[in-house]
Amino acid sequence: MKVALAFFVVLCATLLIPLGHCNPLEFTNIIPISRRSLLNRRALEGDFDATLARDEQQTVYQKYLNMFKILNGTIPVPENDIDDFVQSKYVDEVAPDTDTVLEQVVGPVDVSDVLLTIGMTDAIVNEVDMLYYGGLSIGTPGQELTFDIDTGSADLWVPSPWCGTKNHYDSSQSSTYADQGRRFAVSYASGTVYGTTASDTVMIAGTAIQNQTFGIVYRESQDFQAYPNDGLLGMAFGTIAHSRGLTVFETMMKQGKLKWPCFSVHLTRAQHAGSELCWGCFDPTKATGPINWFPVSRRAYWSIAMSGFDVAGERTTFDEMVISAIDTGTTFCYFPEPVAAEIYAQIPGSKDASATYGSGFYTYPCTSQVDIGFVFGDVTFRLHPGDFNLGMSMYNPAECLGGIFAMDAAQWPPNLAIIGDEFLKSWYSVYDYSDGGRVGFAPSVNNQ
């Protein structure tokens, strides 16, 4: 999907401590995120347009190139000092009672005055929630821009005036701009974006972050121009940042702007407004139950171990754990070819659609209410049937396209899955830096 973020940062190439370290009552930083249509309407009402899915599939191959190498041991996991910082400044200094905090999380509580959030817009394409983006400002005085919120990358980048008619960042208009003099480039499926790194003040929901490193893009591919967001906000670990700097969230922690070392994401379903990114907090108004926590496999991506899947109540356990990257910047779900084939083999009437749509596509009967779940630890987290159903096939109106795609075994590791918005709309997700990193899922209010 984010097909042309090539140059710098990461859209392009891109556990366990007390729950109190993500205290729900101390929210001071929430930003709403949104999604907007990229196309006015689909060519034929009800038909599935495979173009965007094919584009995203190619993007995913490029985005997780380094993840392949990390999993295969080709390159070591990069390191920075953020884990030691979190331990000393958050974990050792703050230790509330876990049970008490958990009670507060799931109980009724008015948090309107203490959440630091930004709203996000949901970009809906052909009735599919394709992209969530939110706003923040850069520079002094602040220049307002919108950013794709991406837990699958770690760079903040903005377009420069050279990028055409889109909203852009003009360094000459900021009194706090500083040129870092480093080239910034990232290759992405459809091209490469070029620029340089700089630092400036970033303002998020009234909170100022000084001297934040980011990329200024001077050239971006034409397809990126079609997206409604101006730039990209990477929320993965800074160890994979192309800018070689801390992420915005890590800088906020270092500068003492956050109460807790975690952020939380709520994604709406088929609603332009209402999505939300909560900085340093958990918003209990977006969840209907407690959090289940899972440690990250490596401090690079927000990747956790998946032990199996469930179709219609029948659980299948993997012989080898599948590492799953939890990625708000990806729309669909992507699995190794053998795993995807095994999932669809348990859906009556499903078919390999590679001959008509391309490698990795599957169809199933539109009349089916497919009940699929992913197993993390020993807990099954279900996909909403409506999110899994991407629309009817243009070749057969009785068949619909499934939202799980197979990745070519010749190009993709046998133990890597990408879990995108299709899943996250059903689960309020929390990303915690404590104890090396962990991801939490709580039932979303979307499912009420």
Indicate the topology.
Blueprint (H helix, E strand, L loop, with lengths): L28 E7 L14 H14 L1 H7 L10 H10 L6 H9 L10 E9 L2 E11 L4 E8 L5 E4 L18 E11 L2 E14 L2 E13 L11 E4 L13 H7 L7 E5 L8 E5 L12 E4 L7 E9 L2 E13 L6 E4 H9 L5 E2 L1 H4 L4 E4 L6 E5 L2 E4 L2 H4 E4 L6 E4 L1 E4 L8 E4 L1 H4 L2 E6 L5 E6 L5
Q: Can you walk me through this structure?
A:
This protein is an alpha+beta fold and 448 residues long. The chain has two domains: 19-279, Acid Proteases (Cathepsin D, subunit A, domain 1); 303-424, Beta Barrel (Cathepsin D, subunit A, domain 1), CATH 2.40.70. It has nine helices and 25 strands. The strands form three sheets. Strands 1, 2, 3, 4, 5, 6, 7, 8, 9, 10, 11, 12, 24 and 25 form a 14-stranded mixed sheet that branches. The chain has a seven-stranded mixed sheet with strand order 19-18-13-14-23-15-22. The radius of gyration is 21 Å and the shape is globular. It starts with 28 loop residues before the first strand and ends in a 5-residue tail after the last strand. Residues 1-28, 33-46 and 95-111 have low confidence and may be disordered. Belongs to the peptidase A1 family.
Overall structural domain count: 2
CATH superfamily of the largest domain: Acid Proteases
CATH class of the largest domain: Mainly Beta
Alpha-beta classification: alpha+beta
Tell me the CATH architecture of the largest domain: Beta Barrel
Helicity range: 10-25%
Task: Characterize the overall form.
Answer: globular
GO molecular function, one term: aspartic-type endopeptidase activity
Active site: 150, 327
Signal peptide: 1-22
InterPro entries: Aspartic_peptidase_A1, Aspartic_peptidase_AS, Pepsin-like_dom, PEPTIDASE_A1, Peptidase_aspartic_dom_sf
